[in-house]
Amino acid sequence: MRVLMFGWEFPPKIYGGLAVASYGITKGLSLQNDVETIFCLPKPCGEEERFLRIIGMNQVPIVYRNHDYDYVKSRMPNYMSPEDYYRFRDNIYADFSYMNVNDMGCMEFAGGYPGNLHDEINNFSIIAGVVARAEQFDIIHAHDWLTYPAGVHAKMVSGKPLCIHVHATDFDRSRGKVNPTVYSIEKNGMDHADCIMCVSELTRRTVINEYHQDPSKVFAIHNAVYPLSEELQAIPRPDHSKEKVVTFLGRITMQKGPEYFVEAASLVLQRTRNIRFCMAGSGDKLEEMINLVAERGIADRFHFPGFMRGRQVYECYKDSDVFVMPSVSEPFGIAPLEAMQCGTPSIISKQSGCGEILTNVIKTDYWDIHAMADAIYSICTYPSLFKYLQEEGLKEVAGITWEKVGLRIRKLYDNLVRY
């Protein structure tokens, strides 16, 4: 089976959980040996793993240019060939000479989430029309609202079934203050989809109730984690017998509930001073959180190390005695699973999708700062509770694999292709 997949992020360039999930899903599919994934990215870095085929949408021409083979070869990255370029060029379907293209007839992408994001989403969908005409595939899979227009275009061109993957909705990102433009893109993608995969039952209910989708085509497909490499397993856990460390790691935005973490920390520090709190990440509420920490008089016990990536993330987990994810609305949330892999007990909000599959964590309402503070204090104070959550958490998360996720997705693919 050949899958034409549209995504906005992929490791090693990671902006958030979308990249991690995209990697896990495609890797899980690849383990079945008979699934080939063609993964379309706005701007690959060239260092992506090669268990799937990468197409850089910034290398697909939409305006005809008459370049010879050697010149094209000199301009193509290592994951694409001159033959790819010419094949795409032969499938340009309209006059796009009015668009801002480079000397190869291709559109540039900033990568990530630039200020002109909506323009880039539109450009991505235009290029998807060329790719869908040039490639042979059985099914289309589009990740998150950024690529839904591309998926819909590819379906219209090819007539192939469209799966969309809902990693989050604008209801999650905005606490209900939905951006009408984003909502319309999400709704249009869902309306055209033959199958909607949601990262949790929580998200599935949002899709059915807020986007008015037929429940029979909406499925909960929970995320997973990959086993830690030997290198990451070897990261030592420091001795915290004198001082404990409690960590929030993620985007410091309204959706993630960082203010509840600060307020819970303030309550804990009224009971003991031998705990340090770490808020790792970046986001539009960072400055507000720094000010709130100062107002609560706990700045001497609070640290803001900034955005972390790669090994730094796992060093941070290993250096923590408790991981807290107080999200207001979390479609899934892979971070607690990663923390548990590192032997760090987790506290998550009841408004988190991962809570549907996790047992050996403590769950509180995001707004219940007193319950959150009690949980933090208990894990830091009672070694037996820490050890129980650590050992049972490790066992639990070991059974949550991307290979199982890949098998579930493959069954949904098969049902669509069959009919």
Helix content: 40-55%
Specify the CATH class of the largest domain. Alpha Beta
Distance between the termini: 15 Å
Strand content: 5-15%
Report on the biggest sheet: 7 strands, parallel
Strand order of the largest sheet: 3-2-1-4-5-6-7
The sequence of SSEs as H and E is: EHEEHHHEHEHHEHEHEHEHEHEHEEHHH
Low-confidence stretches: none
| Shape by Cα distribution | elongated
> What is the helix tally?
16
Mean pLDDT: 95
Strand runs, count: 13
Per CATH, the superfamily of the largest domain is Glycogen Phosphorylase B
Rounded to an integer, what's the Rg over CA atoms?
23 Å
The CATH architecture of the largest domain: 3-Layer(aba) Sandwich
Q: Find the structural class using helix and strand composition.
A: alpha/beta
Question: In the residues, how many domains can be counted?
Answer: 2
CATH fold descriptor of the largest domain: Rossmann fold
